[in-house]
Amino acid sequence: MHVFRDRKSLLMLFGLPIVQIVLFGFALTNEIKNSKIAVLDYSKDNVTRAITHEIEASRYFEIAINATNKNEIEETFKKNKIKSAIIFPSDFENKLYHLHKARVQIIADASDPNTATTLVNYLTSIIQNYWKEKISTAAVPLQIIPEVRMLYNPELKSAQNFVPGVIALVLMLVCVMMTSISIVREKELGTMEVLLVSPFKPILVILSKAVPYLALSLVNLIVILVLSVYALGLPINGSIVLLFAVSMLYIITALSLGLLISTSTASQQTAMLLSLMGMLLPTILFAGFMFPIENMPLPLKIFSNVVPAKWFYIIVKSIMIKGLGIESIWKETLILLVMTLLLLILSLKKFKVRLA
Amino acid sequence: MRETVISTNQLTKQFGDFIATNKITFEVYKGEIFGFLGANGAGKTTAMRMLCGLSKPSSGHATVAGFDVNTQPEEIKKNIGYMSQKFSLYEDLTITENIEFFGGIYGLTNKQIAEKSKDLIERLGLVKAKDQLVGSLPLGWKQKLSFSIAILHQPKVVFLDEPTGGVDPVTRRQFWDMLYQATENGITVFVTTHYMDEAEYCNRVSIMVDGKIEALDSPDGLKKQFNANSMDEVFYQLARSAKRSDN
Predict the structure, then answer these.
(1) Banded model confidence at residue A58, pLDDT cuts 50, 70, 90
(2) Domain A35-151 is in which class?
(3) Strand pairing of A84-88 and A35-41?
(4) Span B137-170, pLDDT tens digits
(5) Fewer CB within 10 Å, N side or C side of chain A?
């Protein structure tokens, strides 16, 4: 009876396996479906059309754009709209039949090396499969030679992928946990009450709690960056100032989240658990550096949008790895900014309510 | 007529349907020790929070140190001291650091803090321990220190919420001596307690039952009124009629 009365434990007992099975079974596959691809076809002959058709027909790809020149492809890469592109040079069919070989260029966004490799493999196998059917009818062996270009990360270093993720994760964890625990500890000890009775303004209490952690988190960020540059040989291709500015914003997001947690919990343990469960898991799962978000079912995809780490991860990757400027990340930054404001307002309001 | 420091008129706090404090009206005079008694859940803490400017009254009025709780809570905060039932100094700061911190919060200058902290540490006989972490002090010492810090800025009123919980009788007696000393300096003491022997030490005592003040007089006056030998009996007679106490 005792076990059944304890609703919370029961929920944990039965809820956890269900959630995990669903998450890991369906959502978090490394398989890639419906990845956005751009096609640039200079040749527009029977073969290239057939291959394009094959690509579109496969469940791995979705043609996002039929480009007309290389610049267009570069632009769409910068806007994060495509993960890969395929370029057929002019006279593709002619070359194929007369020179017995033709080249096709495949470009993949290698800031996520795993996905990039997978995509390239899919593409080459689609081309080869198509060609195998054809080749049996041809007299001479004909060859299609794919030329692969890994954008942003030619050596396919995995560090490029996980360092921005780690930055997002560490900052989120440290800030959320530290602020929530430190404020809740004051509540537990009773010092918070004394501070509130004093002429010290509540907003100042919060600020004085948040500022040291802001500073500490910046130090943390510097350590991670220095380590990744000097130990992992990772470049910072974009503007460092921009990187720091956006990181500040993200840190403030995390601090306000921590504040929100602290206003709704009474004990340090709860605060710790909540920030761990509430932050660690979603950040790891939905930031996009472990499991590609594109492959998740729609509900999870939608959910991933409220995870601040997802946006920050995109931003950091764009700045550090791709060397892009503010013009390519303003949308993500804006989302983060709105999130921060909402969280701040919400938590300050809750803080006030508690006083009234 | 003595100077009034706290005065409430029909002060009420309601949480939904629950009336925590129901139209209480009383006055506290300058320099007295006012005992605020009541069983658990009688509404003492709620009343005290309103008087400290932490919580807004649902209706009614009150002034503390001449300021209105409805409109001037910030002014009130500058003129009161507060010590809660939970020990509320920073355990991981030393005694000196705690004094500096709280002095700073109440806007004392560095010079004032230095003087007062030296004076205070000597008076409490904590010279040797002044660089010790507060967490390592025995409970009795913590309470005394806590009180001394609560009156560091010479407030007009100091609110004490069950200040002597879990403290041995000897230390409790010493603590009350400190309260008397404070009143001699013109500080008014507003104290809640569950110890009836402490109630006897107060100049005047009010007893709350179910959100209302059922009795208010000097301890002797109350004993006469209820035909009882001790405050214990007075309290028992009143608290027995309570509907919402949790004992």
Answers:
(1) confident
(2) alpha beta
(3) parallel
(4) 888 888 888 899 888 888 999 999 888 877 888 8
(5) N
**Axis-axis angle for helices A308-320, A159-189 (nearest 10):** 140
B55 contacts in A (CB within 8 Å)?
355-356
* Mutation for testing the A interface, residue in B13, B52, B86 having most A CBs under 10 Å: B86
pLDDT band at B55 (very low <50, low <70, confident <90, very high): confident
Which of helix, strand or coil describes residue A85? strand
At A200 the pLDDT is 78
Chain B residue numbers touching A189 (CB-CB < 8 A):
86-88, 90-91
How high is the mean pLDDT of chain B?
A: 87
Residue of B nearest to A354 (CA): B55
Where is pLDDT greater, at A286 or B180?
A: B180
DSSP for A97-162, written as a single string: HHTSEEEEEEEEETTSHHHHHHHHHHHHHHHHHHHHHHHTT-SS--EEEEEEEEES-TT--THHHH
- Smallest CA-to-CA distance from B189 within B166, B155, B214 is with B155
Per the CB < 8 A criterion, the answer to whether A139 and A316 are in contact is: no
| Domains detected in chain B | 4-240 (3.40.50.300)
Q: Which residues of A touch B51 (CB under 8 A)?
A: none
What residues does each domain of chain A span?
A: 35-151, 159-355
**A132: number of Cβ within 10 Å:** 9
- How much is the pLDDT for B25? 92
Q: Does this complex have an ipTM over 0.90? A: no
Backbone angles phi, psi at B155, to 5 degrees: -75, 165
Which residue does chain A place closest to B58, by CA atoms? A356
Phi, psi of A158, deg, nearest 5: -75, -20
Mean pLDDT of chain A, nearest integer: 80
